[in-house]
Amino acid sequence: MRVSVFGLGYVGCVSAACLAGMGHEVIGVDVNQVKVDLVNDGKAPVIEERIGELIAEVVRTGALRATGDVREAITGSDVSLVCVGTPSESNGGLCTTYLERVTEQIGAALAEGAEHGGRHTVVFRSTMLPGTCMNLLVPILEKYVGGTAGVDFGVAVNPEFLREGTSVRDFFDPPKTVIGELDPASGDVVAALYDGVPGEVFRVPVPTAEAIKYADNAFHGLKIGFANELGAVCQALGVDSHQVMDVFLADRKLNISPAYLRPGFAFGGSCLPKDLRSLVHAAQRADVSVPILAHVLPSNADHLQRAVELVERTGKRRVGLFGLSFKPGTDDLRESPLVELAERLFGKGYDLRIHDANVSLSRLMGANREYIETRLPHLAQLLADSVEEVLEHAEVCLVGTRDPAVLSALPHGDGPVIVDLIHLPDADARRTEPGYVGLAW
């Protein structure tokens, strides 16, 4: 394929060289003439493992050249990769100045070359927040081109997962390939670019592709911060943190796994809150600052409060809650976030009915009964014997259980507002219904 790559920094330089190495005909574009000259001389403008040899080879064979002329690059290519920087503003926001500028230039060049025919595809590889492409960049392209995205020209988002120092290796053996496609034809072009590259390919909506890069980097930062904080606590307590983490990392069922990584409702129970409190308290006693660990429980409380606010925004007063125990299939109510949710709603004066097939006051005993009598002493008058009783009562239904009897009875269309706390199996279909509200999706 004939490819133009805009921006010859780390991402653009590596992408251009590697695509050329795969057999594509590549034109690198940059406003910095020094970078352009270096590439045309077969030299890399960045320091990176293997990049020098690769650029020398693909320039020698004619597979890669560079220019500062946007029109020349657009005329000589069928697909453009935008790899310009998106630095932080002084307030922490995303700076889109370079993205906007190069998008305007590409749009103008596409308009000038329209008579040559053929649909050009613009692929944004720069890291940008969800909504940037569709709400900012596509309108710019349509304005300058004088056409419609997905019809007169293609648009896609293709985030990169390259680590500086190993970026060439990562390009040829990526953890995944993500294609945010405006339309299938645009996605097909990007998929063809990486034909032969190993790893799973995900073709998703444009905003999803934009968000994935942020999910990855936020989690990487969180992992490093978590390991460092835990290491500091272990050191203060006289424990070998590397031994702890060796065992932690060996657990592929719960720790290094998909477990607990699906958006949903707040966590609770007799273990997680208690142990987090104890660990943070031990760190404080040892004068060890652990801001990540110290904010896990406040973050959890904020998420629970979001559910309360969803109910408040409906303006309705009769509320039904499906589920009460902290985990399905049990009657354990200790530190259940659903009990906390019920307590807050009842305290705000909502007319509440609750159904949980596993919870019966007559069977509660010990610490479990003591907890609910302290937190929700009016539970007896709130519990409903059946799903139907709750549905008949409620103008708003909060679903916090996957009980088949509940899921099968939930109405579609007309009926109570459904506040989904668990991501219902038919959530995707319900999203189009006016009475459906998801907590975290």
Structure, briefly:
With 441 residues, the chain is α/β, with parallel strands linked by helices. The protein is built from 19 helices and 13 strands. Strand 7, helix 8 and strand 8 form a beta-alpha-beta unit.
Report on this structure.
The protein has helices spanning 10-21, 33-40, 51-60, 70-75, 97-112, 132-145, 167-172, 184-193, 206-236, 241-250, 272-285, 291-294, 296-314, 337-347, 366-375, 379-382, 387-393, 404-409, 427-430; strands at 2-6, 25-29, 64-67, 79-82, 121-124, 154-157, 177-181, 201-204, 318-322, 351-355, 396-399, 417-420, 436-438. The protein is 46% helix and 13% strand. The longest helix is centred in the middle third of the chain and has 31 residues, at 206-236. The model has no long low-confidence stretch (mean pLDDT 93). It is built from 19 helices and 13 strands. Helix 1 packs across helix 3, helix 5 (97-112) packs parallel to helix 6 and helix 13 packs across helix 14. The strands form two sheets. Strands 3-2-1-4-5-6-7-8 form an eight-stranded mixed beta sheet, sandwiched between helices. A five-stranded parallel beta sheet has the order 10-9-11-12-13, with helices on both faces. The chain has 441 residues and is of the alpha/beta class.
Identify the notable features of this structure and list them briefly.
13 strands; single chain; 13% strand; globular; 5-stranded parallel β-sheet; 19 helices; alpha/beta; 441 residues
